[in-house]
Amino acid sequence: MAILLAGDIGGTNTRLGVFSREKGVRSPLVAADFRSGQFPDFITIVREFLKGVNISTDAACFGVAGPVMKGAAKITNLPWIIDEKKLGKELNLPFVRLLNDLEAIAYAVPLLEPSDLHTLNEGRPVSEGSAAVVAPGTGLGEAFLTWDGTQYRGRPSEGGHVDFAPSDDLERELLIYLQEKLGHVSYESVCSGPGILNIYCFLREKCYAEEPSWLSERVAGENDPVPVIIECALGRVYRCDLCVMTLNLFVSILGAEAGNMALKVMATNGVYLGGGIPRRILPFLKNGRFMKSFRYKGRMSDLVSQIPVFVILNPRIALLGAAGYGFEHYQCPNIT
User: Fold this and answer.
1) What are 75-93's pLDDT values in tens digits?
2) In what order do the strands lie in the sheet with 271-273?
3) CB neighbours of residue 227 within 10 Å
4) 84: which of 11, 28, 47, 71 fits an S-S bond (Cβ 3.0–4.6 Å)?
5) Could you tell me which residues are beta bridge partners of residue 311?
6) pTM for this structure?
7) Which residue from 16, 18, 68 is spatially nearest to 42, judged by alpha carbons?
8) Burial (Cβ within 10 Å: 0-12, 13-18, ≥19) of residue 38
């Protein structure tokens, strides 16, 4: 019975699990989450995890937040470099594979169940058509799936780093504001956790909405104020117009870029929103702004209106995909 160590390595969280071929990728033998920034490197997290796991593993596969080139990757939002060969030696494993974390999510899409998804647009899915994944979190990840005649294959992309294209006067002003601060402005600059903060600062500094004194104190006291902004937009305890406006603008831009991705890969079998942010801001994704921007594609508006759109609710989707990819490439095809 093959035993696989799998992981999802992100800029904020690292998720690890041990899987058996017998139980399948949806039922890890053991799993744990770690805060990435609290560790000097990835191998330290792996060793910490394996200390409490009395299971011998045969192989490993990790989804990583960054491009994988010749078996190595630099994590985009961490000072980590991860290499398959070095990991193999350090873990004493004959088989170690790295793949982009969005590619891992793409590999998991065919394994998703109805409870893993929330539907934003039912559309008219085309059997064996391409699908796309757009995942705002610490960064903005994108990937897609194509049908190879027998099954879907995940394909990596670094599309989140393409130029941000504003679609109205407010977004044009946002672009100019960020160009002065950042130089190049990508979609990741406005469609990610840091992107939410960029939008918030823009709206505050340009006086589109007032920042209350109680919120100023909370934001100033946080290393990462984005969860506070989301909380105050959702109004679970306090509600703030500035935070609401921030998320509304974020959702509109995200909808436009998801529609762009749908057109680029002709994602007629669906667009899937992954990452840590969409499931946390579901009320804002459901208020109509996202789909309005998604459909706003001129002559292609009718086409994108027919594309299904889903929010992935399962927080371990990339871990599931990494495990599935690992079993498939470790000559274990009978994975459930």
Assistant:
1) 877 899 999 999 999 999 9
2) 117-121, 309-312, 271-273, 131-136, 140-147, 152-157
3) 12
4) 71
5) 118, 273
6) 0.90
7) 16
8) exposed
